[in-house]
Design goal:
34% of the residues lie in helices and 17% in strands. With 349 residues, the protein is α/β, with parallel strands linked by helices. The structure holds phosphoenolpyruvate and manganese (II) ion.
């Protein structure tokens, strides 16, 4: 529930609303804004009797949030959330952000080459898993801490910001030390211990949709992050499980406008996992931007045929460069622009 205050409401009147909410046994979340101050009420598992709050002076109106998720809903916050990262990069405004890199961090040579190639093509963030959630225990599991250190080195050399996955609660804190954005992978979308830890990690979170999760479930998982105080959340559509083996997943393009309608949080698209096929990645990346995605995350490997994971869906660097050129045109056609690459870091020594 949201208690919207009159624009001339005093601090004392706002505080009285906060105290009354506590008195009723719920938690208050005051939200001062340019247009209005509202006080959110959370902690209820059903409809709250608003009579006592409506009667307080300075209260303009009471809005009942009809969705099961609260703080992530558009009812709670009509304006889009813009997640601001280092170097002025922002996700959720008119810029379309391009994140690219290999599925896994495999070696210094592979990662640094990938970073330079995607940066030269125009990406502004580098992806790459150091901790890999693999279906088989015999598949490459990632370089762990060494992988995080290589990502940090790549950022230093190229200026690209880093997004990488944490697979367990302890890993969340470790990833937060090295990355600009903590990724929560599809398999962990409903790992509530990971979500709670990421909600307190002090870094933005990229939350991927689970392979069998509804959009309501995705938004309730995002609610865990906001409920812990982390409002810098970026959602990611990466395909859901279907019945047709023609593609690895069914890339749910509709999720993009649906999510935009239901929440103020930004959403990006991952057509690499969404399709699992290199030749499908480019058409779906184009479509995602046209559908209104705030960014794309694409797997790119300097030598996909040698990749230790997801080689079949990894673009060759030249393909990625051509995708970026097309993406800029599509973004422009709908009144957006591709986020410019971050400036190269100053040479040291
Ligand atoms: C990834 O992006 O590295 C990944 C493992 O994707 P997902 O969690 O969507 O399967
Ligand atoms: Mn992958």
């Amino acid at each position: 529930m949201l208690i919207v205050m009159r624009h001339d409401a005093s601090e004392v009147e706002i505080q009285r609303v906060v105290d009354t909410i506590a008195d009723l046994g719920y938690q208050a979340r005051p939200m001062p804004g340019a247009q209005r101050t509202a006080v959110g009420l959370v902690g209820n598992d059903g409809r709250v009797d608003a009579a006592r709050l409506a009667a307080l002076s300075g209260v303009k109106e009471i809005i009942h949030v009809t969705q099961p998720y609260k703080q992530v809903s558009r009812e709670w916050r009509p304006d889009p959330t813009v997640v601001r990262l280092a170097g002025g990069l922002a996700i959720g405004n008119t810029d379309v952000v391009v994140i690219a890199g290999p599925c896994s961090v495999e070696s210094e040579r592979q990662l640094i080459e990938a970073a330079h190639r995607v940066r030269d093509a125009g990406a502004s963030m580098l992806r790459g898993g150091a901790f890999k959630p693999r279906t088989s225990p015999y598949s490459f599991q990632g370089l762990g801490l060494d992988g995080l250190k290589l990502l940090a080195q790549a950022r230093e050399e190229t200026g690209l910001l880093i997004v990488t996955e944490a697979v367990d609660p302890e890993g969340v804190d470790l990833v937060a030390e090295y990355a600009d954005v903590i990724q929560i992978g599809a398999r962990n979308m409903q790992n509530f211990s990971v979500l709670k830890r990421a909600g307190r990690a002090g870094k933005p979170v990229l939350l991927k949709r689970g392979p069998a999760a509804t959009i309501t479930e995705l938004l309730l998982s995002a609610e865990y992050l906001l409920a812990e105080g982390n409002h810098d959340v970026i959602l990611c559509e990466r395909g859901i499980r279907g019945f047709d083996s023609a593609t690895r997943n069914v890339f749910d393009l509709t999720a993009i406008p649906v999510v935009k309608e239901l929440t103020h949080l930004p959403i990006i698209a991952d057509p690499s996992h969404g399709t699992g096929r290199r030749d499908m990645v480019i058409p779906m990346a184009r479509a995602a931007i046209a559908a209104g995605a705030d960014g794309i995350m694409v797997e790119v490997h300097p030598h996909p045929e040698r990749a230790l994971s997801d080689g079949a869906q990894s673009l060759y660097p030249e393909q990625f460069a051509s995708l970026i050129r097309e993406a800029a045109v599509i973004a422009h056609a709908i009144g957006r622009t591709l986020a410019p690459p971050l400036p190269l870091p100053a040479r040291r020594g």
